[in-house]
Amino acid sequence: MSELLVEIDGHSFPARFETEAAPRTVAAFRDLLPYGERVIHVRWSGEACWIPLGDKDFGLPYENATSHPHPGQMILYPGGVSETEILLAYGPVAFASKAGPLAGNHFLTITDKLDTLAELGRGTLWTGAKPIRFRLG
């Protein structure tokens, strides 16, 4: 059984927390579980989907930060230059906003079914928002 399940539009993906590399971000996200929202396609960053969180302040520093998450990696941008958000890469990404390049905390990794994740990501680009839910495995 996986540590966490990420469910997108009826598809379930096993995932793990990056607890050693991003302990504060993982703890903040765990406090939200179970968590559900809608995921939409990014505008600036490449092949990824995101959950806009507006001015939500998690009080987090940068930890395990990256601007180039790999497919299946999720990052939490704690806000500042742009709005707070969670981004899920399904292909090549250069994380950015209209204000320029950004970095986010890599705190979660989907560990299987990356081909299905890519299909869902491309589908989100063409058909719009999809439901996403996170729960412990």
Q: How would you explain this protein's 3D organization?
A:
The protein is α+β, with helices and mostly antiparallel strands. The protein has a single domain (4-136), classed as Cyclophilin (Beta Barrel), CATH 2.40.100.20. 16% of the residues lie in helices and 44% in strands. It has 2 helices and 11 strands. It has helices at 23-30, 114-127; strands at 4-8, 11-17, 35-41, 46-52, 65-66, 73-77, 85-93, 96-97, 100-101, 104-110, 130-136. The protein has an 8-stranded antiparallel β-barrel with strand order 1-2-10-6-7-4-3-11. The protein has a two-stranded antiparallel ribbon with strand order 8-9. The longest helix has 14 residues, at 114-127. The chain is globular, with a radius of gyration of 13 Å. The model has no long low-confidence stretch (mean pLDDT 96).
Widest β-sheet, arrangement of strands: 1-2-10-6-7-4-3-11
- The CATH architecture category equals Beta Barrel
Helix-strand string: EEHEEEEEEEEHE
> Care to count the β-strands?
11
| Global outline | globular
> What is the CATH class designation?
Mainly Beta
What structural class should be given to the helix and strand makeup? Answer: alpha+beta
Largest sheet: 8 strands, antiparallel, barrel
Radius of gyration: 13 Å
Helix tally?
2
* N-end to C-end Cα span: 6 Å
Topology:
Blueprint: E1 4-8, E2 11-17, H1 23-30, E3 35-41, E4 46-52, E5 65-66, E6 73-77, E7 85-93, E8 96-97, E9 100-101, E10 104-110, H2 114-127, E11 130-136
Antiparallel strand pairs: 1-2, 1-11, 2-10, 3-4, 3-11, 4-7, 5-10, 6-7, 6-10, 8-9
